[in-house]
Amino acid sequence: MGLPTSQQKAFGKVVADVNDFFPHGTTIHVGDSVKFVPTGFHNVDIPRKGGSAAALLLPTGQAVAGSLDAAGAPFWFNGQQNVGFNPALGPPGLFGKKATYTGAKRIQSGLPFTNKPKSFSIKFTKTGTYTYYCDLHPGMKGTVKVVSKKSSVPSAKEDKRDLNTQIGSTLKTAKKLTKTVTPANTVSIGASGSGGVESFAFYPANLNVKTGTTVNFRMSSKSFEVHTATAGPGDPENQPTSYLGVIAASLQGNVFDPRAVYPSDPPGTIAALTPTFHGNGFWNSGGLDHSSTTPQLPASNSVTFAAPGTYTFYCMIHPFMKGTVTVT
């Protein structure tokens, strides 16, 4: 469920990960089981035959209320529905357990919220080809082909060869992503390639513009991720009690701080960012992605830099992602 642990150091050198299952597909005899090993923040969702992946985010049924900026002004999203993880993806889940899949009922592993989630096994009792999904990363999927006991299946050697081919191909793609170039006044929040490869960096990492310039923060076209571009006080990774740190930390719970999910300014408007905007220099693109399962999330957002200074941006979902815009 994600990049094999033996490969994470190599991919880490190029600030990359892969939203895919390794191997991407497997063939087994009917009645056999597949063991799923969590190596990243992914789940396994096998819908009933003919079904599709589950939604990651759902309205909580509670409206946002009392959300104020640092200057004491209400944010525009007060009154909007708050959102959180789909409760179906929560505990107890399948980790450390066994399950049987017949095609009649969805098998859902849940999200690996514990520090060291255990592996789990799923037994397949009917022949056919079944697709399973990661609901956190729409587009991430794998297949299990179940054949009769008389049919041949790949040997362990053949499986290892296919796995190594997949690893080699994705690492090659990851290295290419470090050379990502964007159009003028455009920042790509991450970069992506085929096979679920994701580079977790801002491209460019440092952008220089003149006062009055509008910059577009956008998702890369093949990304399975959700990102934000967020400016404001504090380092969300190293200062958890700072303004941005508190916002980012809320994404580890079941209900999110609306300042993390919603854009800081009404959709369709281009804010004029200064060091005192919203009382403390806060601007958030809101959640951005390319998935049709979250139609409320756009693929880009823009902001105008209305005053000189150096503005640092983070992704609230992946706080280690950091970029700067220097305005003269």
Descriptive overview:
There is one protein chain. By secondary structure, the chain is mainly beta. 12% of the residues lie in helices and 30% in strands. It is built from 4 helices and 21 strands. It has helices spanning 8-12, 156-177, 243-249, 258-261; strands spanning 16-18, 25-29, 33-36, 45-46, 57-63, 81-85, 98-101, 107-108, 120-124, 128-133, 141-147, 186-193, 197-203, 206-209, 214-218, 230-231, 271-273, 283-284, 300-305, 309-314, 322-327. The strands form 6 sheets. Strands 1-13-12-15-19-17 form a 6-stranded mixed sheet. Strands 14-21-20-16-18 form a 5-stranded mixed sheet, with no helix packed on it. It has a 3-stranded mixed sheet with strand order 2-11-10, with no helix packed on it. A hairpin with a 3-residue loop joins β12 and β13 (197-203). The longest helix has 22 residues, at 156-177. It is globular. The mean pLDDT is 94.
